[in-house]
């Protein structure tokens, strides 16, 4: 029987993904300091080339700061639609070859190759897959192969750019030992600073600290950190097809054709599940809108979109789908919105046209919703409907506005008077 410690886990990571796609579009950019992000003074760096990193530039840095560090850097605004297309292309290649894979972000994948040594050899198979991806897409990609997800990811980072690294079973701890603690995933500047103040700078030193002491220093995070330092990670590879969608729907108190009301509901539902996306640090690649008419006929329509979790991006697509779908001009009893094709990622990667203010705005909105609840902030179009829902829950019927209903009906059924 194969134990968890004897697994073979490969981690693939597309190197400087956005930058690499830009270089495919324009070969003259290869080897030059390239920034992808907002081009205004208020813009933000979403990605940068290795050449730009030598000047101290990193993602999430204000574009103005980056240009001060490297005045001759080339800036591209970014093309999320193109990046999503290449991501799906690589995903398709992996899905055709791998027995079990997990897409952990728009440009990262984990593959469980346990048991493959009996047939082809996990290392040989992984190298062949990397070569196939490079041959078909022309994108540089690195991989690490080890007994668990943690070590394979660290190995990938060590193999970059455009390389490969295998950590044999049993050598996980020795591989990690000489590294700085920041090399471990999820160890940020603050945690690293706390450890340094206590004399812990390398992974080896961290692994030798008693786990009870680490727990006293860092709480439960200290236990997880001790496991990482010792190369222990039993996290499974979650099959991509098991990644769940996020959805919501609403059956109305009375069937309606009031477009003002329906659009308000779409805004409310989209904001609600977009907030859930950001809370789970996920991006959606597909939107589905569902309508159920008064005669109970149900129709739906979906659209593949560039990966996003931003309200203003998702809402535009939701409204577009609803407009195309609602062609019967009949009373509606239910509408629903679903986001699917979920991958790990955050709002930052789609900020090519956004500013620092917009980043701060989303962070502030989510902070308020986390503290006071999802209804603490909403667009103005939803205020009236929110109050009506509160009245209904309290048993108080809102003032009915028949003129709005008749006005909407008259637009689509002029024979009604």
Automatic annotation (TrEMBL):
Pfam families (UniProt xref): IMS, IMS_C, IMS_HHH_1
EC number assigned by the record: 2.7.7.7
PROSITE patterns: UMUC
Binding site for Mg(2+): 13, 107
Site feature: Substrate discrimination: 18
Catalysed reaction equations from the record: DNA(n) + a 2'-deoxyribonucleoside 5'-triphosphate = DNA(n+1) + diphosphate
Principal localisation: cytoplasm
Keywords, alphabetical: Cytoplasm, DNA damage, DNA repair, DNA replication, DNA-binding, DNA-directed DNA polymerase, Magnesium, Metal-binding, Mutator protein, Nucleotidyltransferase, Transferase
Reported cofactor(s): Mg(2+)
GO molecular function: damaged DNA binding; DNA-directed DNA polymerase activity; magnesium ion binding
Swiss-Prot/TrEMBL GO biological process terms: DNA repair; DNA-templated DNA replication; error-prone translesion synthesis; SOS response
InterPro entries: DNA/RNA_pol_sf, DNA_pol_Y-fam_lit_finger_sf, DNA_pol_Y-fam_little_finger, DNA_polymerase-Y, DNApol_IV, IMS_HHH_1, Rev_trsase/Diguanyl_cyclase, UmuC
PANTHER family referenced in this protein's UniProt entry, alphabetically: DNA POLYMERASE KAPPA (PTHR11076:SF33), DNA REPAIR POLYMERASE UMUC / TRANSFERASE FAMILY MEMBER (PTHR11076)
Record's function text: Poorly processive, error-prone DNA polymerase involved in untargeted mutagenesis. Copies undamaged DNA at stalled replication forks, which arise in vivo from mismatched or misaligned primer ends. These misaligned primers can be extended by PolIV. Exhibits no 3'-5' exonuclease (proofreading) activity. May be involved in translesional synthesis, in conjunction with the beta clamp from PolIII.
Family, as annotated: Belongs to the DNA polymerase type-Y family.
Name of the protein: DNA polymerase IV
Source organism per UniProt: Chitinophaga parva
Recorded name of the encoding gene: dinB
